[in-house]
Amino acid sequence: MLDESMYREQIIDLYQNPLNYGHLEDADWTYEEDNPLCGDVIEVDVKLDENGRVADIAWSGDGCAISQASASLLTDAVKGLTLEEVRNFSKEELLEMIGVPLSMARVKCALLSLKVLKAGAYGMPDPKSLHQHIDDEA
Amino acid sequence: MLNVPQIRSDFPILATEVYPGVPLIYLDSAASSQKPVQVIEAMDDYYRHTNANVHRGIHRLSEEATNAYEAARAKIARFINAPDPAEVIYVSNTTEGINLVAYSWGRANIQAGDEILLTEMEHHANLVPWQVLAEEKGAVIKYVPFLADGTLDLTAVPALLTERTKIFAFTAVSNVFGTVNPVKQLVKLAHDAGAIALVDAAQAAPRMPLDVQDWDCDFMAFSAHKMCGPTGIGILYGKRALLEAMPPFQAGGDMIRRVTLEGSTWNELPWKFEAGTPAIAEGIGFGAAVDYLNGLGMENVHAHEQFITNYALEALSEVGGLRVIGPPASQRGGVTAFTLEGIHPHDIAELLDKDGIAIRAGHHCAMPLHHKLGINSTARASFYVHTTTEEIDKLVASLHRAKKVFRL
Ligand SMILES: Cc1ncc(COP(=O)(O)O)c(C=O)c1O
Asked: Do A109 and B376 touch (CB under 8 A)?
């Protein structure tokens, strides 16, 4: 009895043909972190436009089908979002996009890319305060 | 040879179903073994009939508990051919045994510039305690490299043992490659260089006869839970002279001889290193596990593992894209780690689980080993006294199914 529900076509497709895979030369931020369970590492590079929205995003790393598919889906979903919206992107939203039943251990795999993306986003200065700061200087 | 059907009936868990209609195929004994009914009953019996604190009471139960607990120590001492049960210290697991040496012996004997020799195939338990010690003392850690086949580069050892080397700590059996290291030879090289030798026997103790006098090792540690015994207990063997000279590791009750408000004197071995109320039921369960393994005969256990490993390596070689890491069956214990082209180990483990097959996926607490191989993780199937060739066939069939799911 083999229950393959976790490995739907879409997951395998994304695993074998990932979206937004690679690196950005001119990223505004790059962040990487590993999944302590398996040692897999994911790196996310983000480039913001002048309005502080995600203009381009790329991810790289090695991992299981769930973590890889999740990184593809997530990086596609956050294009055009503001820094604030990225910071508020919820786990539930990502898990819903993945849409397959996951065990507790695998939820960690699924959320690795989000963890990496958010950790990077929180490390960024707020674009508003950045501009405010520049205005004050002027 | 082992009577495997008989052995299987000793392990209640092997009769369980993981999912409805899917029996358990337990191929993760290297992480923690299952327990035979003899061990479960010994612990149950203790709690039902003998439970009391040890070394403290003059009432009947306390004496019985103390006797059972100390009898287990004597059995373990015989199991490893230790000259004296006082050289067998109860600890909570292998990790604590190694930490005891690193903290107690290490802090007293390692100085700035001294060298500690390890190998590149160590479990984190025999790596991190030494890193912490080296950091604290300004000591240097060196590593014996492993070769492409997962065996140690023995030619490199003599040059790595210098006059500054104080200790050579290495595993008897790799928990990833399965490699059985030449313990006696390595201990001798250490002694020739004036260093002491510590053997991590976590994977060796469950699978082969151990003889600390033949090996002549100075310390050796292993855990009960990987050898049919309970969690929460293991032992550290140490040569008496070394143990006598070492300061206590933890302080409190049981480990003292006499306490005054001005200071204390230490209890004799082995209790000097056993502070507080110990894991009594677990000690008794450990003794029962040793009885169980002795009943099977460690030579037979080893022969069965060789047989199954041989069979498994052959069967796995039929799976396209599968690469086993480590040496041939003749040089390994029942631990087989592998990668499968196009499927991550996590996904292999997940898909196998649906067929009731429990394997481990990850770095198996050996990140430096995996790093050197250029991979983050492997899948690992480990075999034990109850493993059958039918189970290996099911493993192979399940791997083929996993490949189908991944359209490979
Ligand atoms: C070779 C080796 N050393 C040490 C350990 C640590 O054992 P424990 O976790 O019981 O302390 C293990 C198992 O996890 C092991 O395989």
From this structure: no
